């Protein structure tokens, strides 16, 4: 990145420490927190998996599952982690039928649990290679801190619609379709880790938005609340900056695919330029506001 330290937003680290400690206190009142040994990023991400799993077990009356999460506040991930250039990661590829859908959300998700198995070796290698590619193009810090659990979904052909997402209840976890190419997967990892970063940054800075403040989103071709608009104006530019850098290291169909993606995103981002400064005015934290503005400005020059 042309912005050294872009992703090192100190309030996020404090938020992670506070939330991790709070979750451990909920799961094991009176007990001292037990670090994973994988670092605070892993502790934060895995604590949310344990909390989500314990809450679901409590609601359904599954005592054995609840006891497992209470005894394994890190979802037993250390034993099944995959080594990468960014440190250990948890890579899983569950059956789509094993994903959970909350009664209050249409977005499905997967929670690590006692039956979780690592993804097959080929998929773990794909993720490791994608993380290396992202690191070599300047996005290692982002993925190191905001993509600890990688949930691979459907295998698709290049050119098919790739769907990926994150959910706020599982920070540090990303859900992605994949094509088998690390350069393409790295793009989508950066996009989703960007969402995780911004969710944490907004929470850490205490930013809230009035839902009546809406802006036209060229990506959705509709009016969106400030929260969603700002997310798009952050995550898509990050993938543009990545794509512009990785293109010289690709060839053939992958190069053509990423070139077309960058061309498309240039037009969409340009259509957001008029509203973006107005949306940024809603962020009261000057440091955070400037980080978002800098990435948007840089991507507009591509």
Give a count of the beta strands, DSSP E runs of length 2 or more: 8
Radius of gyration: 19 Å
Number of helices: 10
- How far apart are the termini? 13 Å
What share of the residues does DSSP label as strand, in percent?
A: 5-15%
Strands of the widest sheet, in order across it, are: 1-4-6-5
What oligomeric state do the depicted chains represent?
Answer: single chain
Shape: globular
Number of domains: 1
Extract low-pLDDT stretches.
Answer: none
Structural category is alpha/beta
Q: What about the largest sheet? A: 4 strands, mixed
Please write the string of helix (H) and strand (E) elements. Answer: HHHEEEHHEEEHEEHHHH
Helix fraction by DSSP (H/I, runs of at least 4): 40-55%
Mean pLDDT over all positions:
94
Protein name: HEXXH motif-containing putative peptide modification protein
Organism: Streptomyces sp. Y1
InterPro entries: AKG_HExxH
Provide an overview of this structure.
This protein has 302 residues and is of the alpha/beta class. It is 52% helix and 10% strand. Helix 1 packs parallel to helix 2 (40-60), helix 5 (140-146) crosses helix 6 and helix 7 packs antiparallel against helix 8 (252-272). It is globular and about 55 Å long. The relative contact order is 0.11. The model has no long low-confidence stretch (mean pLDDT 94).
